[in-house]
Structure formats: C-alpha cells, structure tokens
Amino acid sequence: MITGASSGLGRGMALEMASGGAHLGLLARREDLLNEIVSEARARNVNAVAATADVRDAKAVRNAADRFRKELGPIDILIANAGIGTTDHALRLTPEHAANVIEINVLGAVNSVAAVLPEMVERKQGRLVAISSLAAYRGLAKSAAYCASKAALSAYFESLRIDLRRTGVGVTIIHPGFIKTPRTAGRGAKMPYLMELDDGVKKIVSAIEKEKKLYAFPWQLATIVRAGRLMPVAMYDWIAERNSFRE
Ligand SMILES: NC(=O)c1ccc[n+]([C@@H]2O[C@H](COP(=O)([O-])OP(=O)(O)OC[C@H]3O[C@@H](n4cnc5c(N)ncnc54)[C@H](OP(=O)(O)O)[C@@H]3O)[C@@H](O)[C@H]2O)c1
C-alpha cells in the first residue's frame, strides 16, 4: 500500500515494486493518474488497485486499506509517502497553512498506519515505511511547517519501531535529500546533490527490501546535515541563513 502514489516518488516506487513482482494498493486523490499506474502495473503482470482518498480522512484511508486487502490480500508493506511542502517565510506562514502541512504529512501517515497495523500485528509480519526527509534533522529557512512535520513523522515512526519490537512488524524511516519530482520541478533555489527520480526510487526500494531501520541519502548531503546537528546554534544559524533551499 503506497500513499501519494499518483506522482513523483510514490509513482516511481509503485512501478519499481511492480517490476519486482509486488501487487499494489495505490492511494491518492487524483484518480486519473492512479488509473494510469494501474495500467502500467498490469502491463508488468502484477495486480494493482487504485483507491482515491485524502490521507487526512481516517475513515477513507481505512476503507481504501480494506479494499486493498479484499482485492489483493494482506498488506505486507505500507509506504506512507503522501506529503506536501512549503516555501513560506515565517512572516507569511499562516496557522492554517502550517496545520494543513502537518495534517497531511504527519496525521495522514498516522491514519495510514492505523489502517494497516492491527492486521500486521495479528499476522506477526509487515513493514511500515515513512518517507520523511533530511529536513527532519534541523530547522531550515522558509520551511518551518515542513521541517516540523518531517521531524514529527520521523519521531513518530521511531517510537513505533521501539513499540513494535518482537511483534514481527518492522519499521523503515527514509530521509531523502533532493529528488527530481513534480514537487521540486521549476524550483529556482539551489538543491545540492539533486538526484534523478529513478536513482532515488531505486535507493529507497532497496533500503525497504533490506529492511533497513533508517536510511538517509545521498550520503554527501546526509553527512552534511548530520554534522549540522552537532554544530553550535550560532554557527548553524549563520550557515543555514546563507543556504536557503527555498526561493
Ligand atoms: N522530491 C524530493 O526532493 C523529496 C525529498 C525529501 C522527501 N520527499 C517526500 O517524498 C514524498 C513524495 O514527494 P514527491 O516529491 O514525490 O511529491 P509529489 O510529486 O508532489 O507527490 C506527492 C504525492 O502526495 C499525494 N498527496 C498530497 N496530499 C495528499 C492528500 N491530502 N491525500 C492523499 N495524497 C496526497 C499526491 O497525490 P494527490 O495530489 O493525487 O492526492 C502525490 O501523489 C513527500 O512526503 C515528500 O515530503 C520528497
């Protein structure tokens, strides 16, 4: 089950996993795009089901998961990928906009986990995957809501990983850097170590298959971001202000 499957990383992961023989439960709001992926998956000789739902709607997500189970069988992997970004400076960021980012990026993933976890625990198998971001590590310029949402998402899945030890259900947290998708297309700001979609997708799918607990990439940017966590606040602020990744 992949949320946010209609575009970018979600679509890419769906097709990559279909090539590996996985059956797909695809969730997003844009039905026409999901149906195209269903056709492409079927051309790869796997079964795929599209369910339109908004991840903010817990009941709709549960109904979608029920449909996937009914038509495809038990859900082995949930990829909580649906997400949106922000480019708002603190002086322009409204509470409504911040709430929307957090509702989709965090509570959307919470709803998705709730729709699959009881059955995974009952079967004593399954994997929960969060598509978080390198933006989860520290605050970045013009990204308050996004960074907050990804930090929350990663912490949520980390806690799940601890709680789910010995249940048979594993957790994988992915922290990607910049990847070419419709979301990053047309951005004027610099995006260091920007990756091609195919390369990013292959790295994520491989990390899921290897059942990694945490995977941050590309390694160059992941190393810089991790080093940033150890920096004194004044030094971090000086560097972060001069390295805005948003126009
Ligand atoms: N691209 C990057 O550089 C990058 C880097 C780090 C992390 N990420 C993360 O990777 C994930 C995918 O990003 P992307 O770059 O592939 O973006 P994208 O091309 O804009 O795709 C976002 C997906 O999320 C879905 N979505 C958004 N709001 C939704 C909602 N309320 N309910 C259900 N689905 C919703 C969209 O589908 P519908 O509009 O059809 O609903 C779409 O399929 C996001 O969580 C993003 O934060 C991306």
Structure in words:
The protein is an alpha/beta fold. 50% of the residues lie in helices and 14% in strands. It has 8 helices and 7 strands, in the order βαβαβαβαβαβαβαα. Helix 1 (8-19) links the parallel strand 1 (2-3) and strand 2 (24-28). The model has no long low-confidence stretch (mean pLDDT 96). NADP nicotinamide-adenine-dinucleotide phosphate (NAP) is lined by residues 3-10, 28-30, 54-56, 81-84, 104, 108, 131, 133, 176, 178-179, 181-184.
Overall pLDDT metric:
96
What are the secondary-structure elements, in order, as H or E? EHEHEHEHEHEHEHH
Largest sheet: 4 strands, parallel
Strand content: 5-15%
Low-confidence stretches: none
Gyration radius, rounded: 18 Å
Total DSSP E strands? 7
- Fraction of helical residues: 40-55%
What structural class results from the helix and strand content?
Answer: alpha/beta
Distance between the termini: 34 Å
DSSP helical segment count: 8
Instruction: Write down the overall geometry.
Output: globular
Strand order of the largest sheet: 4-5-6-7
> Which ligands accompany this protein?
NADP nicotinamide-adenine-dinucleotide phosphate
